[in-house]
Each structure stands twice: as C-alpha cells, then as structure tokens.
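We emphasize that the prediction below concerns an isolated chain of 379 residues; any contacts that depend on oligomerization or on bound cofactors are therefore not represented. The input was used exactly as deposited, without trimming of termini.
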Amino acid sequence: MSKKIFLVSRCAWTLFNFRAGLLRELVKNGNPDIVGGAAGDGFEPKIEALGVKFNALPVDKKGINPRADIKLFWALYRCYKVQQPDIVHHFTIKPVIYGSIAARMAKIPKIVNTVTGLGYVFTDKKITWLRRLVVGLYRISLKCADFTFFQNQDDLDFFLSRGLVKKSGTALLPGSGVDCEHFSPVSGPNPLEKSQPTFLMVSRLLKDKGIYEFVEAARLVKEHYPKSRFQLLGQRDIRNPNVVPEKDLKDWNDQGLVSWPGEVSDVRPIMAKSDVVVLPSYREGIPRALLEAAAMAKPIITTDAVGCREVVDHEINGVLVPVKDAPALAGAMERMINDPEMRKRMGKAGRKKVEREFDEKIVIKKILEVYNKDRKPIN
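Result of the prediction step, given as a token string:
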C-alpha cells in the first residue's frame, strides 16, 4: 500500500546528502507522494531529481529565535494540515521539536523522529539555561511522536534517564548509514610518499568539531614532518554560533598549516588522495564523514567521544584520542606517518566494519519496518 510520506530536515543539503538512499527506496517502493521539507540552499534540484517533491521551510539554524521558531512551527502545521501525509519523519533538532508538535496537532497518523545528535547545546557547559529549555521542548515534542530513533547508545540513555521517551518507542540506528557501493576503496598505489602524508578532516567548520585541535596538531606534526599536509573540507555554517571565523581559516592557510578548499559536491576524489581521515569532535550522533572514510578503507583518528567511538574500534580500524587534546592527536598522526602497514591494515578493517554494521541498507530496512508497523495509541 503506497503512502504519502514527508521527510523534514534542517536544510536541503542534509536531506540530500544523508537521506538520498531512503528517498530513492521510498520512490522505488511505489510511494508516489514523497516530499522533502527543509530550508532551501541550492540542493533542491538534486532532491527533485530523485522523484521527490520539495517543500521549502523557514528553518532558522541559529540558536533559539522565538519569532523564527514560531514561524517554522506554523509553516509545518499548515503544511501537514493541508497535505495530510500518512507519515512524517523529522531529522535534526528543530524539525524534531516543532514538527512533532505540529504533526500531532494536525492529526497525522504516524510521527517518526531521528535524533541525529545533541549538538553544541549539550557540549557548551556555559549555556545551562538553553540546555534546560531544549530538554523541556524535547519533553513535550517527543510525547507527540510514535517512534524515535537515536544514533548512539549515549544519546538514547540520556533521553531515557530523563523520562523524555519510553524505551518501547525507541531504537538505535547506525547513523544515516553509507552507500558502500558509492564509497569504495580506490585501487592502485597511493600517489603520496611516506614523507608527505595527507591528513583530511571533513566537517562543518564549527569549533566543537575540534577544528582548533586539528590545526594545533598540524602545527606540532609539521615541526617534525614539515612536508605533511592538512586539509579541512566543509562549509562554514555562518548561522551557527560556533562557526570558525573566516579570518582564522585565511591565517592558517597563509601560514601553510591547513588548506581549506571549501565545500565540494563529491568528497571521494579528495578522500581517495588522503592517507588518514581525522575528526577530533567533542560529540556526535554518528559522523557520516567517518563512515565514508572507513568505507573507502581509510584509517581514522578520532576522539573517544559520544558517536565517534561507535565508528572506530581502537587500534583496529583507527585510533581514539582524548577530547580537546591536540598533543595526543599529533602523536596519533605521527604514528600513522611512521607505520604505513598499520594504515593499510586499519583501512581494510574499517571497510569490513562498515559493511557489517553501517551499510545504508541496514538503516533503510529498520526505518521501513517502523513505517510499516501499525500505529499504537500513545498514552
């Protein structure tokens, strides 16, 4: 039986890059009315090319803005009330919070959420008032939902311990998954020599992704290995209060520390030429960049932090270092430089781990099972 399904995220970029596989599967399964809702950012044509309608939404990504958030809530409510989808599935914090309440008010038959991570609100200890507010909003909104997915056990435990969700209405997903056919190892010799390794960090350019630790580690490594290369790949999310100033990026480039080619539509060519992929993040859901790196058989250095440690088995497919510890990060990088056999071994192990645990097909199967379940009344 075909269904009308809305998938709502913060922006078209995340909807396309993280949910394209799910959207394709829904269209392939004969659901004629699949709608993607998000803030427009230029990726709308890519979503529509999948056979999915796009509905632009006024998602303001910068902190708590009551006027903007009310505007988003009413836009979602009117959309659901008029179009009456059978299922709505929200991703990222604001769609989850405001979309769940709007969908319940509009009497949508099934409301599904995916909490993709807790974000800077939960990593910045200075904004206790905002964290309390967000927890309160989650308490209200998740009671409106039929089912909520989480991407790591720590986040699920956090919500369960505070009574924000019931265990029976939750499940874990291995992130957004990765297309193991699209992201695959590149055959042939690595074009770079041992004395000129490349460390690649793929991330939104936010302070809590560990950007400054990456740069400091680059500075330390270059003292011993001056030909080593460091690249940052990703966008400056200017509406996020944790965004890295463009001046810093320019200064690092001018000093020869880190190059920033910006954002690209396809990371594979750059990732294929890298030796090690690095993400010194403070906290994640499940970082997609690390899944892509492992799928391409790249060894990983990341932090022993929520979300990151789920992707890396320490000393098997990568190395875990403490959060906010640039010297430890630099030490792990130097180990990678000096042990090409370890890099190769970890890369192969990472590919096997992704195929076994994080293949996109696993994620899609779990989501479709929830879509197809009969709805149970919410107490």
